[in-house]
C-alpha cells in the first residue's frame, strides 16, 4: 500500500469518520477499495478491488467496515443472489454477527443494517438507513455511493439527485474524492431532465479530474437524451484516452458511443464496438453492467433490422447462468432478450416461471414485489412480441409506460422499451394500435427533436395505411 495516498486510522478520525480498528493498514485498504469504487477503476498498483479485499481481511480479520464495504460491493454489483449463493449469504451473516459482538460506532451499526436490508432486496429501507447516516455524516462517501447505486436500481430519479444535492455544501475541495461528487450530482440532474445544468456540472467534474469516467458518462447521456449525435460522437472520441482506463465503466461508455452510431444508421460501426469492446469486456469481466449493455445493444440493432442471430447465441453463454438469480427486474428483462433472441424457449420459460414463483410471496424484496405489476407483464410483452403477437405486446406494455421507470436503470437504458412499444404498435394489425404508434412517435419527436432514429420511425409510421 502506498503510505501517502490512503487514509490511516488518525486521518479517518480527523474527518469525523472514525473506523473501529487499530490497524492502519486496514484503514488504508478500506480507503483504497472505496477510491476504486468511486473512480470505477481497478488500480493494479494496489492489487485492484479484489486484491484489497483479500488484504483487508488479513490486516484485521474482525474489521466490521472491511466486511461492510466488501460484502456491500458484491451485493450492489447484482451479479449473484444471496438467495442462491451460500457464500454471499454467509458473508452478510458474518458481517452482522461481527457487528453484534463488538463495540462499534452508531454510524458503523447503521452501515451493517443497510447492507443486511439490501441483501434481502429491501432497497427502499436500505436507502433510508444510508440517508440516516448522511444526516450526521454528509461526507461518508460509502453511504452516499451505495445509496446512489440503489436509487438507480429503483429508478428513483429524484432521490438520486437530491441525495447528492443535500451533502454537497459539506464537502470541501481539499477532501479526497471531492471532484467525483460532480459526476454523481450531474447524473441525478440529467435523470430529472435538467440537461443543461447536468452538462455544466459534469464539465466542472472533468475540469478537476479529466479521467472521471462517470462524468464522461453523464455528458454522453445528455447528448443521447437531446439527440445531439455529432456532439456525442466528437466528445466520446476526443476523450477516449481519458475514460477507457476505467475498466468498470469503459464498456458502458463504449455502449453510449454505439448508440450514437445506431441513431445515425451506422450499424457496422455499432457492431464493431459491440464485438471489440462491449461483448469482449462483458465476457472477460462478468460484470452485470457490461452484460446488460451487450443484451441491450443487440436488441436495438435487431429492432433496426440488423441480423445479429449468431451473436445472441454467444451472449446466451454469459446470461444463461443468471436465469434463476432474479436480483433485479432490469437484469431479468435483459436476460430474457437474449434467450428470446437465441430462440432458447426453455430459458425464457424458466425465467418467467421463476419470477412468477417469487412474486407470489415476495416478502421484503422490493423487486419481487414489483414483479407482479411490472416485471411479469413486461416479460410477457417481450415474449408476445417475439412470437409476432404485436397487439398482445401493445396491450401489455402500453398501460405500463409511466410506471416502467420502476424497473430501474437510466432513461437512456429504458428507452429500449419505448422503442419496443412503438415497433409493436406499428406492426400490430389493430388500426387503433397503428394510430397509437404514430402518436408515440410524434410525442418522441417533441421531447428529442432532430433524432434521426425518430425520423426513421416517423417514415415507417406514415407508410402505414390510414
From TrEMBL:
CDD domains: StaR_like
Domain of life per record: Eukaryota
Gene3D superfamilies hit by this protein: Tetratricopeptide repeat domain
Keywords: Repeat, TPR repeat
Keyword Repeat attributed: yes
UniProt similarity note: Belongs to the TTC38 family.
Name this polypeptide is given: Tetratricopeptide repeat protein 38
Lineage of the species this protein comes from: Eukaryota, Metazoa, Chordata, Craniata, Vertebrata
Gene name of the encoded protein: TTC38
